[in-house]
Design a protein that fits this description.
By secondary structure, the protein is α+β, with helices and mostly antiparallel strands. The chain is built from 1 helix and 3 strands. Strands 1-2-3 form a 3-stranded antiparallel beta sheet, covered by helices on one side.
Length: 65
C-alpha cells in the first residue's frame, strides 16, 4: 500500500501488485480506479519495463483531463 506520493502514479491508499511476468494491477480507492495491465514482457530489472511506467503515468494523467 502506498502511504505517500513519490511519483505521479503514487496515490496514498493505492494498493496492488506488479508481477515479474509482465502483469500489473492496482486499486486506488481515492480515485475510484481499478487498473490492470497484462503484457508478455518479462521484467528484466527491479523497476520493471518502461511500458509499465508509461501505462500508469498515462492512467493518472487521464484522470486530470
Amino acid at each position: 500500500m502506498v502511504t505517500r506520493r513519490g511519483k505521479l502514479d503514487d496515490s496514498p491508499g493505492r494498493y496492488g501488485w506488479d508481477g515479474g511476468y509482465g502483469t500489473s494491477w492496482y486499486v486506488d480507492p481515492a480515485e475510484d480506479l481499478i487498473g490492470i495491465l497484462l503484457t508478455q514482457r518479462l521484467f528484466d530489472s527491479a523497476s520493471g519495463p518502461q511500458v509499465l511506467h508509461d501505462f500508469w503515468t498515462t492512467v493518472y494523467q487521464a484522470l486530470g483531463d
